[in-house]
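Task 17 of the worksheet. Students: predict the tertiary structure of the chain below and write it out as structure tokens. Keep your answer in the requested format; marks are given for formatting as well as content.
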Amino acid sequence: MEKSCFKFSVLLLVPLMFMAGCSKPLKTTDLSEIYLNGMSVGDKIDDDILTSYTQSERYSGSYKYKFEEIIIDTNDSEEVTYLFARFDENYIDIKVNGENPEVTEDVKRILGENYQDKDYDREQQLRELVYVDNEKNVKAEFVYSGDKSLLWIELSKQ
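Model answer:
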């Protein structure tokens, strides 16, 4: 009985390990020109800009700065490590290579084809385009709805 359980376990694990090893990493994309109200990952936080936002507890998470308009997290040196903003509320000027994308096709045209398109929340029918910049260790996630309109962006240091 013990040998058959071991064989069964091996038969289940080997294909899973093979499948896990098959996913290839994303090719790098230059994400250095993505700005949320002029801020990007790696920038020093500007205290003057922070005063223009409305404090909020609307969003969960242990982020350093939570506002109605934007979420910002920083490291100990006050460099931005995470940014979150919504496209659909029009509070924040979201620029990608100097353009304001509105739908997924805009993002693909601006940043190119080196992305992963995956489920974000299947129940709500939300998907996301994920881009990575391996040189700067930055990830950009564009979450969108079924009609391909962009809902929010998350920009983070990996």
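Marker's comment: The longest strand covers residues 126-133. Residues 16-21 have pLDDT under 50 and may be disordered.
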